[in-house]
């Protein structure tokens, strides 16, 4: 029994129906309706997605294994790191958040912790310097803003 | 001979000192991107787009730089094929067959030099083809009406998976998803579609964010899953002892490979992988029993390598003249064009002649730069190959973050990119191709616009979509593009696998 394609196919059929229904709810454009209104193209797409997804449900490809267990956790950790990186970029500043994010990722990918965080810190500082001096673009300094020159 | 005049003007643009400098930077970065594991050409070009923006480069400079990156990535792909027996990207697969055995016999630097010369010739042949064919095709494309364009876009989607593609239905699913994402935002009549009242979505989804997320972030997640964190063992590179005779020997192979590659690149649905495959098989046939293919024959390196570079230049023909890319990387280049406010397509040859011809000239100039870069500096690239992905990929991810952040300085875009990254990972696990999604995002607005125009002309009569001979032809080819992979796809795939397996057993 194969699941991946079937489940994805069903999800996409649901999406197609929801999307198609959403398209029928558009208000009529100003100036009256035309041959092709704002809903025509989306409705076409909903039909195409619905039919092609149905094909996936009926004739699915063999499954690829999902990484459960440890690798799965590593993946979730990586995604959490990326989200936190985005969240902390402004408050902590580019250099510190980069050191933490790149460091953690290198470490989780198999580097030794010390080397990992040094890589993170160095890359953060280098990219910051390149951006602010060579390219003249301001990245947020965050809590390091006291270092700002001038 | 009008073309020659344009080309001369193009050289005038491409040879301006700062454009030349950016071409050099692009060629260097491109080779690097091609050589490094886990950074395909599409991926590399995608990450560099936001940076090209934030630098505030002039359109032609940005395009010249990224075309050089594109050309460079094709050169770089061969380095890991030859030294590690790992193709940098799919088209470089054929180069492994004779390149790796040559390296095993202690002729790594000869293999690298030969492949650089073959790449150069392949690109050169194909760029000349591009110069001849592109203006003709552009002129022809001026006769296209909206209905023909609509059919052409369908053809582009249908053939994207290529004849060797596995499951064309998944291409359709992916294309529909991409087109759906493209409908988000305020449409041309001022109606809000699928914005859910979120201010950030009013202008639609920025395809650059989607591209970087889908490619770069999902690549990071894939590497984590495969635990391919450490560096790979690589071959020692000997001192180069290449004679003129060795180069002369591979010249015919390179020319043949370049021509075949160009044809494969221009045709929809063939692509660089098929280009290098045909290049290799033809060489085997032509040389016959005198060759020792699979055991380190230099002609087996030159043929496919010229084919693959020829195909990548050939792939620019439909992208520049019709605005319809045939591969992932050309789709990313199209994204750059659209974001620079240049409408790709036949009109570009008249309205933005300086840019188009500047880019074409830059392709020629870039090739010379790459040849010069690649022979003496190959040592540097070889050293960089040993940078383990566990350091490389986090840094690449960081650069993607910086690039996206610097476009609009909002964190919302970063979250969006991460979401696209996770989605990209899940889709790749399901073997849903990502390129049709990107193409859908890029072509969606144009496709809808052409549908509207066609219907306005016909006053709501849908039959206009297949009313001209040209449109019918395009529909037929689109249909074939979806059906043929089911019929001859398995045969071709098996054929492509056979020599690789022979090669693998031969080199053990």
Structural features, described:
Chain A: It comes from Vreelandella janggokensis. Chain A: Keywords: Membrane, Transmembrane, Transmembrane helix. Chain A: This is Tripartite tricarboxylate transporter TctB family protein. The complex is a heterodimer of chains A (150) and B (508). The radius of gyration of chain A is 24 Å and the shape is flat. Chain A has five helices and no strands. Chain A is mainly α and 150 residues long. Chain B has one domain. Chain B is 75% helix and 1% strand. Chain B is built from 22 helices and two strands. A two-stranded antiparallel ribbon of chain B has the order 1-2. In chain B, strand 1 and strand 2 form a beta hairpin. The termini of chain B are far apart. The chains are: A mainly alpha (150), B mainly alpha (508). At the A-B interface, helix 1, helix 2, helix 3, helix 4 and helix 5 of A face helix 8, helix 9, helix 18, helix 19 and helix 20 of B.
Itemize the secondary structure elements and their pairings:
The complex is a heterodimer of chains A (150) and B (508).
Chain A: H1 4-24, H2 40-58, H3 69-92, H4 94-108, H5 113-134
Helix pairs in contact in A: 1-2, 3-4, 4-5
Chain B: H1 2-14, H2 17-35, H3 41-54, H4 59-84, H5 93-104, H6 108-141, H7 146-160, H8 168-183, E1 185-186, E2 192-193, H9 207-226, H10 244-266, H11 271-287, H12 298-314, H13 316-322, H14 328-339, H15 348-351, H16 353-374, H17 378-385, H18 389-408, H19 411-429, H20 435-458, H21 469-487, H22 489-507
Antiparallel strand pairs in B: 1-2
Mean pLDDT of chain B: 82
SSE-based structural type of chain B = mainly alpha
> What summary fits the major beta sheet of chain B?
2 strands, antiparallel
- Portion in helices of chain B: over 70%
H-E order of chain A? HHHHH
Our count of helices of chain A gives 5
Helix-strand pattern of chain B: HHHHHHHHEEHHHHHHHHHHHHHH
The amount of beta strand of chain B, in percent, is: under 5%
Low-confidence segments of chain B, given as residue ranges, are: 504-508
* Alpha-carbon Rg of chain B, integer: 22 Å
Helix percentage range of chain A: 55-70%
Please provide the count of β strands of chain B: 2
- The total count of strands of chain A amounts to 0
